[in-house]
Amino acid sequence: MTSHLRSDGLYLVKGENISRPFLCCPNIGIRCIWYKKPYSSSSNSSSKGTTSLCGSSESYALGSRICYYLVVMAVYITMVVIGVVHWYDCPINTLIPPYLVVGGLCGAAMAVHWMWRLSKGTSGSFEMFMFVLYAFFHIVWFLLGSLWIYGVHPDYEHKYSPNFCQKTLYSFSFWLMHFSMVVLFSSFAWLFLSLLKVIYLMVKLRNP
């Protein structure tokens, strides 16, 4: 398997075990399209066609990521609002409202950072450091939150009871913890599958 960098920034990948060549757009990750026309480095029509295809794919990927971060931002803002409104409404565990507020503020700040990075197209060691830092914070905060939320059985009826916790506050925190658990384990599964894919491609390139 061989790859050739074209003048338009696309990679043409060919090999004996590939039925037909395909083009990859490196600026949006490993995204490839089948190359149907005969390859010619000086072909303007082919270059424009593949560039427009990859350009539209890049725009779609950027738009979908921004939409994703906007939805995430809405969840983080909801966390902050519910935590602030019901700050004194959970005497059974007074750490649940701060859990929502701190988690929502840190998550919103990170979402803003990632949207800014996507709009500017910047990347580097600082972005990787921020990603690792946020992932570490998310895991630690998730573990602490699971102890604080799952470790109590609140009373919703008697407001002045020491076991009281406002129903909206606790229900939101409880289901948010469930959702975070699904996202966390899904992320680990995706990383594991991505690692397997990288290993498979490396073995395939070394043994064509």
UniProtKB/TrEMBL annotation:
It comes from Meganyctiphanes norvegica. InterPro entries: TMEM272. This is Uncharacterized protein. The chain crosses the membrane at residues 66-88, 94-116, 128-152, 172-196. Keywords: Membrane, Transmembrane, Transmembrane helix. It comes from the Eukaryota.
